[in-house]
């Protein structure tokens, strides 16, 4: 890294967790400041998480203090006091640790050009965590602006899990010039030790949590000094914590950590881990990139990991040392998940990471950035367009699209141009775009940001102590006297206020909060490997007896899908007719496809009753037999049913709410007052209805449509699935349920049930289905 820095080149450093990436990223900065001291900002460090910036500051200060270097290091996040923020602009530290959103706000001040004029280096940590999403779009635009202020600025990005190094080099480089970015690869380190935990009896037919193994997981925790138990959702984290506590006969100290818990609660848990006071921590993706604790000697993944890159990231939290193997245990929730877990192990062993998907920059993010630039100083359109195009996500931005974004900020759009509140920019007599009035500058700084949280209510005790938040949808299902698990406690609702859920502790049985948003999608790499397992019988000897028997019975009763083939089975059961498609495109894509296929079944007179899906298959069922499934999977379903469904559902409205907030059309807060989630939703819904009626081609409606298609429905995977269906569908007609169909059919009527009693009913149903499926014809 020092050699590359002395050449003046940008750098992408890819190295395993524990290899010292962060220190390597800062080493050229420390060397430069020792050899050539400066008075002013030298290096920016960008982190995806506020907590990570704080942790890096702590770790960076130690060597600086040990060497008695006169180097000032400070953080700047949403938690930084306002007086310190003001002082940082007039007298910045040598090294400033911040986030993309806080950097964007800094660039909205008139003195930003002066503050960043001497900037020499920018270090982007965990670049894989945001480069391919909207936060990455914002950061790429900020990099373009910084490069104009400081042409000699050197860019550095760090990551442990990058599949497409050239893609990240192009993203990092000014103007996408990949040759200006050196790829620096660290030593590989010790290979991880990964095991799959198997139950004492049989792997379950269905479920995706691994809750059946709570006692075995607790035994594993007892064998280790410190363990992190990763869960794929916040709801599951609360459930697993309760399950572990019930089997925690030795009363070992364990905690829970996820994004909906109060910040102070998370900080206390993190400090307890750092101090070695916890034996285990149940966590979600909130710790995927989190604080590094050297004494964690085992990571347990509840349920399948869904991707090899995510698994590696999580494994890296254990034995945070380059020369020691990270140890991990996977707990598959069902038989398909066992295959997925084995696929993940094989992928990690082969060094295969999940693909990184880069896409064009979002227009709502561009609108926010242009407003930030105008808050700092008036700008010329062509000069700004050239600057924006130097950021890779916007390199192909057309001039007329750029002009549409500018005029959207200036007028709000044709349907809204009569309202002064939407006229934030104007073209001055000097040909420069400028903010129309100072109030819009304050409004921008209060409301800027890319992360749009779901509407939530605070969970608090009567004395005011705050535990965290639950989503408004879940809160709407509660009444005083109801109970739910949260923050490791069983809580009873005392009253529901406008923004608060007032609770008290109880010992009564409780349910678990549900959270919206998409589930983690099964990666295409792991899906392909699972398909390969099904087709390659030579692999079956590696599997437990019950998994091997399951596949053997499927081969005798029906067929197994081949790679690149869509297997569809149809069969009757208990007065209904079922169709199961084994598409392996992930739960999100299957949920969308289920909506579309049942709509088409209705149009064809097949009287659909419903559908259910998991990551591996989609099952639709109705009152009439399906004799021609290919007609249900024709590609025009994306042109007709898909468009109608998205436009008529709440999907597009939710997407519009997000782009309207990011694009500055609707503010989240006024000076001294923050809008409630309901107020924001009401405002965006009202504007949405007006635009749909009077200006359907509005810039933000187009942006919302792109979001709804790409992010919320996995439409790209749907298109691949439909293309496969046309060319390589294999339809098998059966007289009863097949072994492969059991895991998905068990879910019918149970997907939204979260209480423990549902597990017993699910097991009973699974056994009945399995008995029918695993009986060979006489």
Keywords:
alpha/beta, 27 strands, 28 helices, about 15% strand, about 775 residues, six-stranded parallel beta sheet
Q: Would you tell me the structural class of the helices and strands?
A: alpha/beta
Main β-sheet description: 7 strands, parallel
What portion of residues belong to β-strands?
15-25%
* Number of extended strands: 27
Stretches where pLDDT is under 50 for at least 5 consecutive residues are 751-760
Taking the alpha carbons of the first and last residues, their distance comes to: 70 Å
**Portion of residues in helices?**
40-55%
Supply the number of helical segments.
Answer: 28
Question: How are the SSEs placed, and which strands pair?
Answer:
Blueprint: H1 2-6, E1 10-14, H2 21-35, E2 43-46, H3 50-66, E3 73-76, H4 82-90, E4 95-98, H5 100-106, H6 112-115, E5 121-124, H7 134-149, E6 154-159, H8 165-172, E7 181-185, E8 193-196, H9 214-223, E9 227-230, H10 234-246, E10 254-257, H11 263-274, E11 280-283, E12 298-302, H12 308-315, E13 327-331, H13 335-349, H14 363-376, H15 381-389, H16 399-411, E14 425-427, E15 433-435, H17 438-447, E16 456-461, E17 466-471, H18 472-475, E18 483-486, E19 489-496, E20 500-505, H19 524-535, H20 545-557, E21 566-573, E22 576-582, H21 587-603, E23 608-613, E24 618-622, H22 641-648, H23 651-662, E25 669-670, E26 673-674, H24 677-694, H25 699-710, H26 715-728, E27 729-733, H27 742-745, H28 757-773
Helix pairs in contact: 5-7, 12-13, 13-19, 14-16, 14-17, 23-24, 23-25
